[in-house]
Amino acid sequence: MQNLHETWIALKLGGLMMLPLSVLAVLARAILRVKAILYWRYARLSADLLAPESVAGCRARGELAAAAGRLGLYGEVEGVACTLEALPSEGPHASAALSALLRSLGHLVLGGRYAAADRLLSHIEARPDAVFDEDPL
Length: 137
Fold this sequence. Notes:
α3 runs antiparallel to α4. The longest helix has 26 residues, at 18-43. Helix content is 74%, strand content 0%. It is mostly helical.
């Protein structure tokens, strides 16, 4: 309401010169709302794609850990590593989860989180050898 009141005052003071600018402002606001609705409706990732047990979900978490590590958000890297540690060590996602764990491990070491890195390394070493044979990294 405040914006409409200010627009009305500007129309009174500026005359006809303000009318096209006001129309363009209303049009821009409508376009932004339509784009937000379209993004919310069609461009979001589906929940099953980001399920932790899926291959795509593990790869996405690996990318998240790498990006957070580059930004210095080592708490976020540790959170991603904990999520990946909770996954079962066998299944179709095992290779992607191992790759994401190793990416997390590298950033934890660089960030000085040695206790978390040691815990993660022991978890990686406890994985079955079949995972390493599937994807030599």
